[in-house]
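[audit] Reproducing an earlier prediction to check determinism. Same input, same settings, fresh worker. If the tokens differ from the archived copy the diff job will pick it up downstream; this log only records the rerun itself.
[audit] input (156 residues):
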Amino acid sequence: MSEDPEELARSVSQVASRDGRRLAVVESLTGGLVCSDLAASPGSSEWFRGGVVAYDRTTKHGALGVPDGPVVSEPAVRTMAEKAADLLGADLTLAVSGAGGPEPQDDQPPGTVWFAVTDRGDTETWLEQTDSDDPHDVLRHTRVRSLQALLDHLDR
């Protein structure tokens, strides 16, 4: 599997265009990097519905209806993905939130990342722990894994 975000985004674009899928992304940790990758890929106007960058916890709770409590958590990313799917009219939506480091967040160690994918109404969540607490490394890992997750769901 490629580690190049541009190459992964091109692959997402090819499959989404071919299959007529509508994609959206809601990002916290990555601050819009995944949206930028998707928007820059060929033909994105055909399938990319848009994205939400909800970096601040009050935005997550207020605009996206994330339940009270930690935002680096399974309930947070599940809610983010499901709400964005509805808001943006997407049939495949990815959400990501995590502790980018170098300090912990919500009692989670640096490098802790929660992902959620809502695919035609079914939501899958998972947790990954990166090997680094360097924010640049955590962002790169999360960016690549987000694009890979979208591609994996498109290929199902």
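[audit] rerun output stored. Observation attached for the diff report: The chain has six helices and five strands.
[audit] end
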